Amino acid sequence: MSTETDVHDALASHSDEYEVRGLLHEVPPHATYEVALDGQRAVCKLATSDEGDPATEARLLQHVDRTTSIPVPHVLAVGDDHFVAAWSDDVPEDPCDVDESRARTIGAGLARLHEETAFDAPGFFRSTDEGVASNDGRVTDGPALDARESWPATVRAFLEDRRACLADHERGRTYVDAADDALALLRERPELLDGAGDPVLCHGNYLPEHVGVYDGDVTCVIDFEHALAGPAEYDYWRTALPLLGNEDEAVEAAFRAGYESVRPLPDGFDEREEVYRLVNTASYVRSLFLQGNVTGEEAERRADRMTEYVRKTVDALRDGAP
Q: In this structure, are 160 and 74 located in the same domain?
């Protein structure tokens, strides 16, 4: 866990003129503080364990800030285990209500992020000054891309990372079967992801509480810590599936209409929904134990439900093989 000493050390590495004003929130593996740096109101996002990687997130924010029209906080300073970004009054309250109007706006905003970014291959970002190569040959400041040979290979690597995290967690290791089952299916049937599309910048956590909205426009996007390079439909379902949890079909329909007002969804998009439900659910088991927002018997009940869903979905997709 972080302490104010860690935040003081981080800020002092950039300037003698700083102030720590208070903890905003702490969800492993990160903590975020309100601070001031050189007299400017700001936030400092700090890693609280080795699993946190604010430096890569900062490079992504800089890349988006410099190369797209997507509004993101301006990064003021970056360290190995933290970054400092300018304060934004447009960051929404957590949690925030989502009606059809808001859903349509965030759908269009996500589509614009995808429309304005492109990569030569899918994969994972890492912090470096080497730059990001786009499909048109330009190299821009930002994180480097640890490319994989295919989208199915990227998804398997994603799940392998989640499995490793569960295996290292005293209570989480009981549920590694969820990741194992999903991995086994995708090794057997990589064609389930055929047709997904070319890689773009996938935010990975484009939830309403991370997207500021005002008067029909996106005003600020935060929390790129889960970003990767992959097909846009991965990012679409990472947002749409939690929206579907409110059982308001009109909200999800508005989100989709907003997205499609900017760019089309690929052929076979709806047929691949169940695969993304499977991948997301398997990854949520890891988040359940890593973040610790839910504990005790309730955490185990949720993990049991999710792993049972993974098992049934794997069986259904396997039985549906041609």
A: no
CA–chain centroid gap for 36, Å, is: 27
Residues 214, 187 within the same domain: yes
Per the structure, the complete domain to which residue 59 belongs is given by: 4-86
201 contacts 224 by C-beta, under 8 angstroms:
no
- pLDDT (tens digit per residue) in 283-293: 888 777 766 66
Rounded-to-10 torsion of CA 257, 260, 262, 266 = 160
Instruction: Give the containing element (helix H, strand E) for 223.
Output: none
Strand partners, 231: 199
* Angle, alpha carbons 14-64-27 (nearest 5°): 65
Reported as type and span, the H/E element at residue 165 is: helix 151-168
Task: Mark whether 53 and 131 lie in a shared domain.
Answer: no
37 and 134 together in one domain: no
pTM score of the predicted model: 0.91
Instruction: Return d(Cα 272, Cα 214) in angstroms, integer.
Output: 32
Does 269 reside within a domain?
yes
Are 54 and 135 in a shared domain? no
Tell me the torsion sign for CA atoms 313, 314, 316, 317.
Answer: positive
Token couple for 238: 């990472």
- Here the CATH number for the domain that contains residue 61 is 3.30.200.20
Do 51 and 108 fall within a single domain?
no
Distances (CA, A) of 119 to 11, 43, 152, 228: 33, 29, 16, 10
Ramachandran region, residue 204 (left: φ > 0; alpha: ψ -120 to 50; beta: rest):
left
DSSP states along 75-142: EEEEETTEEEEE--TTSPPSS----HHHHHHHHHHHHHHHHT---SS-EEEE--SS-EE-TTS-EESS
Report if residue 240 sits inside a domain: yes
What are the pLDDT digits (tens) for 108-159? 999 999 999 999 999 999 876 544 444 443 444 567 899 999 999 999 999 9
Q: φ and ψ at 201, to 5 degrees?
A: -80, 110
Specify whether 133 is located in the same domain as 162.
yes
